[in-house]
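Dear support,

I submitted the protein below through the web form. The confirmation email said the job was done, but the results page showed an empty box. After a refresh the structure appeared. I'm attaching both so you can tell me whether what I see now is the final result or a partial one.
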Amino acid sequence: MTTRRGFLLALGSIAAGDALAQLPPNIAALRQAALDEGVRKVTGGAQVRPGKVKLDIPPLIDNGNTVPLTVTVESPMTEADHVKAIHVFTEKNPQPFVIGAHLGPRAGRAKLATRARIADTGKVIAIAEMSDGSFWSDTVSVVVTLSACLEDGLI
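What the results page shows now:
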């Protein structure tokens, strides 16, 4: 004979099993794969070196819905030596590509300022593509206390 407590435990186990079965097996691995794929699309698989890029973003974010960020790249912005594009990625967003801006020598200076949605605590990466085909980056770890990007069905 089944007791009430046994019945409720069994029912709870079944419900928990159904909920877990709907989740992807490893969300962290899927997000890392999406980030790696996004960076590969931008760089074409070229080496991304640290330096020349400065990413300014608060290290502690109270609300991830509207986070100010600024990317500055060291470049003379001449015809021979300029920044072609600046791209920003986040490690934990369902869609890791945040923004891409294309520049040219007439831009005057290589600087991008915007606001972004950041889903969760993790890395934010800025990558600059230079006119010589090289890629440079800066990475900042941020802590988000109130997450953004909580759409259903996305990882």
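Response: this is the final, complete result; the empty box was a page-load delay. The chain has a mean pLDDT of 86.
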